TrEMBL record:
Its cofactor is pyridoxal 5'-phosphate. The keyword NAD does not apply. It comes from Streptomyces subrutilus. This is Threonine aldolase. GO terms for cellular component: cytosol. GO terms for biological process: glycine biosynthetic process; L-threonine catabolic process. The lineage of its organism: Bacteria, Bacillati, Actinomycetota, Actinomycetes, Kitasatosporales.
Length: 376
C-alpha cells in the first residue's frame, strides 16, 4: 500500500472513531452529514415563503442588516469566504490611506493560511510588531520602524492559542495605531465568543475598529461565509471589490439561512461554552498529573474563549492514536488530532467546548484523561 493510501485509510479510521463516539466536548466540522447540515435551515428565523435571493438581496440582505445591528456598524456585506473578505478590506484601506503596509501578526490568518495573497493579489506588504506567540503590545505597535496604513488584529489569535489582549490592552493597541495615523481592522472570525473575556458587548468591541470581519461557520455552526462590517461608504466600496474578486454569487440562501440560524441558536450559548471550557481546562492539569503524565500545559490558562491548546511531551502520532483508541473503546472523545508543537519534543492539540460538552463534569474529564494515558 502506498504512503498516500495509508494516510487516507488512517484518516478514515480516525474520522469513523470520532464520529461513532457517544460523548464528546464538541462536534467536529468534519463530522456532520448532509442531512444534519440541512436540518437547521428550515428553523432559521426567516419567512420561507419569500422569494429566493438573487445576487445578495432577500435573505442575504437580511443577514447583513442583522450583523450590522449586532456589531453596531452602519453596514455589513456578506462574503463567500473570510479570506476574500479580509483581502478586500485590507486592499480598500490601503487605497484610502495611501499606504500598502499592513501591521499584523506573523501567526495571523493572512500570513499563514492564504498563500501569500496579500502581496501576490493585492500588492500589500506586511510589517510585524512582534514575532512572539502572543498579541502585540501598544508599545510595539508605536515603535514599528516604518509607517503603516492599517493595523490588523486577529481576535482571538488562533494559532497562538486563541489568545486575546485585555480590554485595556486592546484600547491601548487601537490608540497606538491612531497615533500613527493608521486605521484599525479586526479579524474577528471568532469575535462572537470574545465578549466573556472582554466583559463588553459585541457592539462596544467592534466600535473600537474601523472595520470588522466575522465568520458564520467557525463559532456559529453555519455552512460557510463571512461578513465585513463598518462605515456605509467603506462597505459599499468592498462590495465593488467583492464583485471583482468573483464573490458576487447568484444565490447564497443556504449559507445565509445557516448563518441566521447560528445567530439565533449558537450566539446566545457561546458564553456558556466559554465558562464550561474553563472548567474543563481546570480539570485537565490535575488529571494529567494523577494519570502519571510527566508534564502538561493548558494554554492559555484559563482559556480566553471556548477553545484552547493542550501541550504534551509525546510524539503527535502516538497521541492521535491514543485519542482514536479512547473513542473506539470507551465511546468518549476528549482529544482528536495532535500536531508537532513549535518546541521540539512536544505536541499540541486544540480543544473546543460546545453544546455536547456542557454536561461533562470534572470527574468525567479525569476519567477520560486516565483512559487516554493508559493507551499511550
Amino acid at each position: 500500500m502506498s504512503e498516500d493510501n495509508e494516510d487516507t485509510e488512517r484518516e478514515k479510521r480516525q474520522a469513523a472513531a470520532w464520529r461513532g463516539a457517544g460523548r464528546m466536548l464538541s462536534r467536529s466540522l468534519r463530522d456532520a452529514t448532509v442531512a444534519e447540515l440541512l436540518a437547521p435551515l428550515a428553523e432559521a428565523p426567516y419567512d420561507m415563503d419569500r422569494p429566493a435571493d438573487l445576487y445578495g438581496d432577500g435573505v442575504v440582505a437580511e443577514l447583513e442588516r442583522r450583523v450590522a445591528g449586532l456589531l453596531g456598524t452602519e453596514d455589513a456585506a456578506f462574503f463567500p469566504s473570510g479570506t476574500m473578505a479580509q483581502q478586500v478590506a485590507l486592499r480598500c484601506w490601503a487605497g484610502r490611506t495611501g499606504n500598502p503596509v499592513v501591521a499584523l501578526h506573523p501567526m495571523s490568518h493572512p500570513e499563514r493560511w492564504e498563500g501569500g495573497a496579500l502581496s501576490a493579489v493585492a500588492g500589500l506588504r506586511a510589517a510585524h510588531a512582534t514575532t512572539e506567540a502572543r498579541q502585540p503590545t501598544a508599545e510595539e505597535v508605536a515603535g514599528l520602524a516604518e509607517p503603516f496604513g492599517t493595523l490588523m488584529l486577529e481576535l482571538p489569535l488562533r494559532d497562538a492559542g486563541f489568545v486575546l489582549p485585555t480590554w485595556e490592552e486592546l484600547e491601548a493597541l487601537v490608540g497606538a495605531a491612531r497615533e500613527r495615523e493608521a486605521v484599525v481592522h479586526f479579524d474577528g472570525a471568532r469575535l462572537w465568543e470574545s465578549t466573556v473575556h472582554f466583559g463588553r458587548p459585541l457592539a462596544e468591541i467592534a466600535g473600537l475598529a474601523d472595520s470588522v470581519y466575522v465568520s458564520f461557520y467557525k463559532s456559529l455552526g453555519g455552512l460557510s461565509g463571512a461578513a465585513l462590517a463598518g462605515p456605509r461608504a467603506f462597505v459599499e466600496e468592498t462590495r465593488v471589490w467583492r464583485h471583482r474578486y468573483g464573490g458576487r454569487i447568484f444565490r447564497q440562501f443556504p449559507q445565509a439561512l445557516a448563518a441566521l440560524a447560528g445567530l439565533e441558536r449558537e450566539l446566545p450559548r457561546l458564553p456558556s461554552y466559554v465558562e464550561q471550557a474553563r472548567r474543563v481546562a481546570a480539570a485537565l492539569g490535575p488529571a494529567f498529573a494523577e494519570a502519571g503524565i510527566p508534564w502538561s500545559r493548558v494554554h492559555p490558562e484559563p482559556p480566553h474563549t471556548h477553545q484552547f491548546q493542550v501541550w504534551l511531551p509525546y510524539d503527535p502520532d502516538r497521541l492521535t492514536e491514543a485519542s482514536v483508541r479512547v473513542a473506539q473503546e470507551t465511546g468518549r472523545v476528549l482529544f482528536r488530532r495532535w500536531f508537532p508543537a513549535p518546541v521540539p519534543g512536544l505536541s499540541v492539540t486544540e480543544v473546543e467546548v460546545t453544546e455536547p460538552g456542557l454536561t461533562w463534569t470534572g470527574t468525567e474529564v479525569a476519567e477520560a484523561v486516565a483512559a487516554f494515558a493508559a493507551r499511550l
